Amino acid sequence: MLTFKHLHSKLLYLTPWAALPGLAAVIIASTTVTQVQLPWLLVGGTYALDETGKIFMLLATLLWSVSGVYARSYFKSIEEQVRFYRYFLLAMAGNFILILAQDPISFYFGFTLMSFASYGLIVFKKDTISFKAGLVYISLVILGEVMLFSALLMATNASESTMFPAIIESIITDHNHDLIIFLILTGFGLKAGVFGLHVWLPLAHPVAPAPASAVLSGTMIKAGILGWIRFLPLGETPLPEWGTAMIILGLFTAFYGVIIGLTQRDPKTVLAYSSISQVGIITMSIGLGMQVPEIWPVMLTGIAFYALHHGLSKGALFLGAGLCGSQQQIHRVWIWLGLWLPALAIAGAPWTSGMLAKDLVKSYSLYAPAPWDTLLPLLLSGSAVATALLMARLLYLVRPSAEPYGAEPLIGLVLPWVALLLIIILVPWLPVYSFEYSMSNQIFGSLWPLLLSLVISVGVYRIHIFQTAKPIPAGDILVWIESVLSVLRNHLKKLNDFAQQYILLQQYSKLRINSIQTVFFTKLGQIESSLARWEVSMLFMVIIITLVGLLLYGSST
Questions:
Q1: Domain boundaries, the chain
Q2: Are 393 and 260 in contact (CB under 8 A)?
């Protein structure tokens, strides 16, 4: 008889491959977009795999599949595997739904399902640090969901349809369009991890299991990027003010993530800040698309490819960092050498997907209005140097001579990781993209940032700056805000204690005054009673008459 536990063990062999139908859909999908109507689902849903969706679905299916196989050997007990896959599959389903969704309601449903299911992946270890990270994450998720739901209600209020084109048209013509755009940017920005909304990422990644971190950084934060692409009126109308704000925010996020990441000593925290930095580049590109809507169709393909490149490379770095727990030096050396491939891709090394992605973004900056047409190429080159420095920091932290980090490199963990490394090598040559590009013309432009970062890294590590400097706490501004609030709370507590003491003193003073008044009036009453006696009155009368007589006698003499 097949028990429930035995059924779980049988299904666990199929669970890691649950994403393969999505990969098959990407491979066999034709150039013609076919929509599927599901009128019986919720309020009705429309689903299709368009050109943008294909790239995001390719990223999602590859990374969810590799991470799913990786997790099969990462967790030793069946109970842990079942608990992990429960949240893993729910989050994956939400991710696939939002990619396929062609109407805002379906997208919102998939986005919400993915966001809430991810909480179970973050708090998987069930320790104090995990629950703290989970609390920050779920608080921001709820805030983001409220913002997105409000934006959705406002956008659909005057719309004749619930399809994306009608919603976007409604946003453009709505008198509250600035408020709707703000809610969309903030709601999805919380998931993407732009500056100010990024604080959950460096807290969640170090506590989440390695396969969870891979999909959190690789695919889930890209859902925020896809949300911007689907909901914002990109390519429809110029939004110069919002575009400028997004460009500035994106560039600041790109450099901020590197600066804070360089001070970290936990490899997964470094990778979290690296994701924040890379999201900054995509945010800047979205802002450029807001300013120059006529080039948006071309930019959209480049942004989607940047998301694909970063998702796969960052997933490989998280999975590889989780394999550095061996006590044998030879194992650590091989894992470390394997980590160089995705690290170089993130840094934009020649003949990698990173070089292709970064040069595409840089080419779009040439269409930017002044002064961005001059500033953006320079700032993007500086960002490439900064990214290479951060990858050098990561490779230093997981070097073979460092303390073991992560799990033992079992064959069930190494094989899916190696498969992902091979995919990263093939990504620039996949026949999925509709743009023309020649790598041979960009070798020097991608090589000099690496060489410069190498020189800087050697100089920095020789003077032991990061070995002696105190790292900035993960969560940075959240920790600083907590410190400020703690100081304010202490001052308020002292003020409250002083107020309590003042109130007690007042009460004591009133009590003392009342007591003195009572004694005084009691004595006064007793004196009055004594003076009212006839014998005392007669005595005083005699005394007064005697004194008056003496005074008269004295005056007559």
A1: 1-233, 242-466, 493-556
A2: no
